[in-house]
Amino acid sequence: MIGQRSMRHKAVGSCACWVVAAVLFPAVEFGAADRDWPVCLGDKASSHFSTLSQVNTRNVHHLEIAWTYFAGDARPDNRSQIQCNPLVIEGVLYGTTPQLKLFALDAATGRQLWRFDPFAGSAEKSALGVNRGVVYWAAGAEQRILFTAGHHLYAILARTGSPIATFGENGRADSSSLRPPKTR
Amino acid sequence: MIRAFDQETGKVLWRAKLTAGGYATPATYKLKGRQYVVIACGGGKMGTKSGDAYVAFALPK
Predict the structure, then answer these.
(1) A59 and B59: CB-CB below 8 Å?
(2) In chain B, domain spans
(3) Is residue A142 domain-shared with residue A164, that is, in the same domain?
(4) Looking at chain A, which residue has its C-alpha nearest residue B35?
(5) Cross-chain Cβ contact B56/A67 below 8 Å
(6) What digits encode the pLDDT tens for the residues B10-28?
(7) Greater confidence, A3 or B60?
(8) What's the predicted TM-score (pTM) here?
(9) Torsion region of A168: left, alpha or beta (phi above 0 gives left; psi -120 to 50 gives alpha)
(10) A64, A82, A108: which is the final residue of a domain?
(11) Which of these, A66, A128, B35, B60, has the minimum number of CB atoms within 10 Å of its CB?
(12) Is the pLDDT confidence value at A72 over 50?
């Protein structure tokens, strides 16, 4: 038990280091403009970094829970995982649940806006339910969230959570056909 | 537990207990003038208690 606890602290501690980089860098914050987290790990360089400075070394000890979202689909064997780094775009937070349901929340309140289950009506399951994040892509007025579950790549309309019928087969592309040939 | 460290001195400036282990990268964003720090608490990995939550922190209004 003690061993487990110390391992957990070690792992979580490493996560907290990323918070430091993201939150406590003494940069000047210009204006009060809202700021997204539009790419997994912060930006396309995976910097884990933000210049936001409302939370800083002087006031970080006042941080309190603003909201908690319980996905409600933890595995019954106590082995659920979520490794997803959520995205925030124009006030909406996108992430995945322990069983890889994609969801959108009001990023100010944690209220769920929609949820999409890639395994609905299917016997297929993802063994561990793990990803590191999802992808946001926009062209013109269309905004998409792309993510993988099992051996499929899904394209989902960011506004509604509906699969984009013109992508792959009814919103998903099968990556299993891309497997390399077996080696001898 | 999630912690914030002073990056110059290593001093722990803040800590909070999560609903389950946060084996994930936090994100930070600003919305309606308020900055948030959010992290997934999925636990489960390495045999620790599992969970199903995302927790967002912010300064008091």
Answers:
(1) yes
(2) 20-61
(3) yes
(4) A54
(5) yes
(6) 999 999 999 998 999 999 9
(7) B60
(8) 0.84
(9) left
(10) A64
(11) B60
(12) yes
